[in-house]
Amino acid sequence: MKISLGPIQYYWPRATVLAFYEAVAGSPVDIVYLGEAVCSRRHELRLPDWLALAELLQQAGKQVVLSTQVLIESHSDLGTMRRVASNGRFLVEANDMGAVHCMSGQPFVAGPHLNLYSAQSLGIVARLGATRWAMPLEMSRTGLAALLAERPANLETEVFAYGRLPLAYSARCFTARQRNLPKDDCRFSCIEHPDGLVMQTREKQPFLVLNGIQTQSALVYNLVAEVDDMRAMGVDVLRLSPQSTQMPAILALVRGAVDGAIAPVEAAARMAPLMPDQACDGFWHGRPGLERCAA
């Protein structure tokens, strides 16, 4: 079973991003997703910078995948997506069907935002060139097991196993809106929140996280305790989503769980103080997402 590191969901300063991936180059991760998948107004790094990082990580022995933007809103976004799709060197994660068709039969990764919930839809993306698919975030273990029984041959399965869940995308920037700023003059407000801006209920309980045009779960999805079960089911890759601190320690614990050096339940427990909030795993168990069901 391999470990992947998903694209950075947040807006971090350029120096922070470069230092983060220098550390990732020496980390025990197998696959690294790069690129701006959330908002095209985030310009600390542009495509040539991502390609330079891709070269660095590939030389360090990582498989590099370039992620496309989830929500395409303009001709400029479309142009960037086409340049990513035609990079000619690195595998691409297609996060909308436009990107899928831009791949023109080339190998690609079908991202979690394509909402592939049936064997028929898996068959479609496999025929179009997908070599790996990422399970939709809300899918349960039962639903995944049913799909794995019918998935096309040679199509790897990846599961989002750690991080705040990206639940929704909007044309409106909520981080700017809470400062009474329009989206076109957002003043890059989200760079002030390296792990997103937490929203609380009236009872002061964490509920959602604002991350520009993206809405995330406030609780942290953690399926590391399920590593052995996922391996037995036939899951090939565990995806971890980057956070601004403690990521090397998180990666080390997950690597230990995958390699059998530490019991998965113990690894999940030791991750608790390293996380930005409490854990949840409800979707995996067919329950409301914010519930915690694992022992």
Any overview of this molecule?
The chain is of the alpha/beta class and 295 residues long. The chain contains 10 helices and 12 strands. An 8-stranded parallel β-barrel has the order 1-2-3-4-5-6-7-11. The longest helix is centred in the N-terminal third of the chain and has 13 residues, at 47-59.
* CATH fold call: TIM Barrel
Distance between the termini: 23 Å
* Strand adjacency order, main sheet: 1-2-3-4-5-6-7-11
Share of residues in helices: 25-40%
Broad CATH class: Alpha Beta
Q: Biggest sheet: strands, sense, closure? A: 8 strands, parallel, barrel
Short synopsis of the structure:
With 295 residues, the protein is an alpha/beta fold.
Topology diagram in text:
Layout: E1 2-5, H1 14-25, E2 31-34, H2 47-59, E3 63-67, H3 75-85, E4 91-94, H4 97-102, E5 108-110, H5 119-127, E6 130-134, H6 141-148, E7 156-169, H7 174-177, E8 197-200, E9 206-211, E10 214-222, H8 227-233, E11 237-240, H9 247-259, H10 264-271, E12 279-280
